[in-house]
C-alpha cells in the first residue's frame, strides 16, 4: 500500500494541475461589469429640467385645453367663433335650382309640350303653400300652366332641409320676371309637418281644392 502521505501529495499535485488548466476558461466566464454603474447625476438633473419645462409650456400655452383655441400668446384665450351668417336665400336657391333646370331650364321657361315654365306661372307666384307642397311631394297628372297643358310627373324633394326648400322657392318666385314675396323656412316646416303622412304626389285638382279651402285661389288654367 502506498503511504497516506504519498497519496495526499499526488492528489494535491493533480488538483493544482486541474486548476491551472481551467484558469483561462474561468477568466472568460467572468461577468462583465459594463452597465452596472449608477446613472450619472448630471443626466438625472437634465431629465428633471426637461420635464419641468414641458409642464410649464403646457400650462402656459394650452388655452385651458379648449378645442376651439389656438393662440401662442401666454394668458390670452381666444373668444369662441361667431356663428356663421345665414346664407342669402337667393344665392342658395339659385344653387339648388341647378338640379331643376334640366327640365324647367335656366331661364325658367321650361320645355314646350314636356315641362311647364316657372316664369309667369301662378303655381309659382300664387299661394306659397301650394309651391311648398309641390316641392315636398311632387306633382303628377295633367296640369295647365300659362294656357298650355302638361302631363309629366315632378319628383318630390322632401329630402332637402326646410331652409333649402324655402330658398329655392324664394328664388323661383323672384326670378325671370316673377315678383312674389319670399318663402320662410318656418312655412316649409309647417307644411311638412301637416303633410308628413302623405306618400304620393299631388294632382292639380287636389292643390286647387286645398287653395280654395285655405286661401284665395288663383284663376284655374294660369
In terms of DSSP E residues, the strand content is under 5%
What is the name of the CATH architecture of the largest domain?
Orthogonal Bundle
Number of domains: 3
- Number of H- or I-type helical stretches: 9
Given this structure, which CATH class of the largest domain is correct? Mainly Alpha
Radius of gyration: 45 Å
Could you report the average pLDDT, rounded to the nearest whole number? 80
**What pattern of helices and strands is seen along the backbone?**
HHHHHHEEHHH
**Regions with pLDDT < 50 over 5+ consecutive residues?**
214-222
Number of strands: 2
CATH superfamily of the largest domain: Cytochrome c-like domain
Structural class: mainly alpha
Key features of this structure:
disordered C terminus, 9 helices, two-stranded antiparallel ribbon, elongated, 222 residues, 3 domains, mainly alpha, Cytochrome Bc1 Complex, Chain D, domain 2
Topology:
Elements: H1 4-28, H2 41-61, H3 89-97, H4 101-104, H5 122-125, H6 128-137, E1 143-145, E2 148-150, H7 162-173, H8 185-194, H9 204-214
Antiparallel strand pairs: 1-2
Helix pairs in contact: 3-7, 6-8, 7-8
Short structural description:
This protein has 222 residues and is mostly helical. It has helices at 4-28, 41-61, 89-97, 101-104, 122-125, 128-137, 162-173, 185-194, 204-214, and strands at residues 143-145, 148-150. The longest helix has 25 residues, at 4-28.
Structural features, described:
This protein has 9 helices and 2 strands, in the order ααααααββααα. The chain has a two-stranded antiparallel sheet with strand order 1-2. It has helices at 4-28, 41-61, 89-97, 101-104, 122-125, 128-137, 162-173, 185-194, 204-214, and strands spanning 143-145, 148-150. It is elongated and about 130 Å long. It has 222 residues and is an all-alpha fold. The protein has 3 domains: 1-29; 39-78, no CATH class; 89-214, Cytochrome Bc1 Complex, Chain D, domain 2 (Orthogonal Bundle), CATH 1.10.760.10. Strand 1 (143-145) and strand 2 (148-150) form a beta hairpin.
